[in-house]
Design brief:
Helix content is about 40%, strand content about 20%. It has about 400 residues and is of the alpha/beta class. Strands 3-2-1-4-5 form a five-stranded parallel beta sheet, with helices on both faces. Strands 10-9-8-13-14 form a five-stranded antiparallel beta sheet. A four-stranded antiparallel beta sheet has the order 6-7-12-11, with no helix packed on it. Helix 7 packs across helix 8. It is elongated. About 35% of the residues are buried. It is found in: Cytoplasm. It holds the Pfam family Arginosuc_synth.
């Protein structure tokens, strides 16, 4: 075909689906394929992906396996948590925030290799296709994006298996049947959906959960930890300085053993349908509670309330794939400005699936005990001032009340 790509960079996990895509690209287009596998902290050994790519005919110099955990947390997760971003009131955006980084590296590798296309394994029903492609086009408007699930005729598990067997693609035994559910994982969370989870009326089986113990089985004694922040980003746990990825991994350990961060959620996908997912975000749940805790004493009400009003829009932009959009970057600049004095330490209680802030202190604190005390305040606040404040704020309401009484 005349417009067939000559060289394609594929987001490659090493699993059955992306291995089939790899071979399909070779057979469909006769093109050279370059693979990119990202270590986002998913907890899996990635070297088998290299061996499998080589088995499928990929040259060693065309196989890219990269540890991007620090970049992921520093440049994507932490900026998002400065905003306290939560989608539809509950979801901490663990899958959403990983996609722009993967797309960025796909484009960069394509440019380095002189490739004219990138490819991904997202289906035509989900959000990830949108996130990958909007990010890619924002970074390189001329790039071609290939989404095999929207093109090919391999529309069933049976057809996929037949294609794999025909092309000598290794198939794990558990892939010959219907998988009970699909899993996406990175350092921030795990996401499980499909099959056994598709009926939202049925409770998810306990085996779905991978990072957290059942809260009922968590330790009977609470654990207390302290998280220190500098300009809105967590930098230490219990006084020990850590890199971003190391810190999030440590919070995952703390949260996992106390059953923190489980979410059974039916969300509205950008493409229009609802889907049910089981999420585990142990470290992120702790981080959100800690960040809100330090903001409580370091952020003034005007800044904090403005941030909270903008947060749903910011979260929606990330969920819908607009990380590299100008509006997300504009909101990020505002959010980052608000974090200038968000430094200090928060004490947290971890117990049976919950995390709560039980103490917070900071050299940047706006909290004045002299002003709020119920004891003698030595003139810090004149209570008589409140009368005029209330009188002026009541004027509008009194005028409305008089008008309503008159017209009735």
């Amino acid at each position: 075909m005349s417009d067939a790509p000559k060289k394609v960079v594929l987001a490659y996990s090493g699993g059955l689906d992306t291995s089939i895509i790899l071979k399909w690209l070779q057979t469909e287009y006769g093109c050279e394929v370059i693979t990119f596998t990202a270590d986002l902290g998913q907890g899996e050994e990635l070297e088998p992906a290299r061996a499998k790519a080589e088995l499928l005919g990929i040259k060693p110099e065309n196989i890219h396996i990269e540890d991007v955990r620090e970049e992921f947390v520093r440049d994507y997760v932490f900026p998002m948590f400065r905003a306290n971003a939560v989608y539809e009131g509950q979801y901490l955006l663990g899958t959403s925030i990983a996609r722009p980084l993967i797309a960025k590296r796909l484009v960069e590798i394509a440019q380095a290799h002189g490739a004219d296309a990138v490819a991904h394994g997202a289906t035509g029903k989900g959000n990830d296709q949108v996130r990958f492609e909007l990010s890619a086009y924002a970074l390189d408007p001329s790039i071609k994006v290939i989404a095999p699930w929207r093109i090919w005729d391999l529309t069933s598990r049976t057809k996929l298996i037949e294609f794999a067997e025909k092309n000598q693609i290794p198939i794990a035994k558990d892939k010959r049947g219907e998988a009970p559910f699909s899993v996406d994982a990175n350092l921030l969370h795990t996401s499980s959906e499909g099959k056994a989870l598709e009926n939202p009326a049925e409770q998810a089986p306990d085996y779905v959960y991978q990072r957290t113990v059942n809260p009922e089985d968590a330790p009977d004694q609470p654990e207390y930890i302290e998280v220190t922040f500098e300009k809105g980003d967590a930098v230490a746990i219990n006084g020990q300085a850590m890199s971003p990825a190391t810190l999030l991994a440590a919070l995952n350990d703390h949260g996992g053993r106390h059953g923190i961060g489980r979410l059974d959620f039916v969300e509205n996908r950008f493409v229009g349908m609802k889907s049910r997912g089981i999420y585990e975000t142990p470290g992120g749940t702790i981080l959100l509670e800690a960040h809100r805790g330090i903001e409580q004493i370091t952020l003034d009400s005007g800044s904090g309330h403005l941030k909270d009003s903008l947060m749903p829009r910011y979260a929606e932009l990330i969920y819908n794939g607009f990380w590299f959009s100008p509006e997300r970057e504009m909101l990020q600049a505002l959010i980052d400005k608000s974090q200038e004095y968000v430094s200090g330490t928060v004490r947290l209680k971890l117990y049976k699936g919950s995390v709560s802030c039980v103490g917070r202190w900071s050299d940047m604190s706006l909290y004045s005990e002299a002003h709020v005390t119920f004891e003698e305040d030595a003139g810090a606040y004149d209570q008589k001032d409140a009368a005029g404040f209330i009188k002026l704020n009541a004027l509008r309401l009194k005028l409305i009340g008089n008008r309503n009484a008159r017209v009735k």
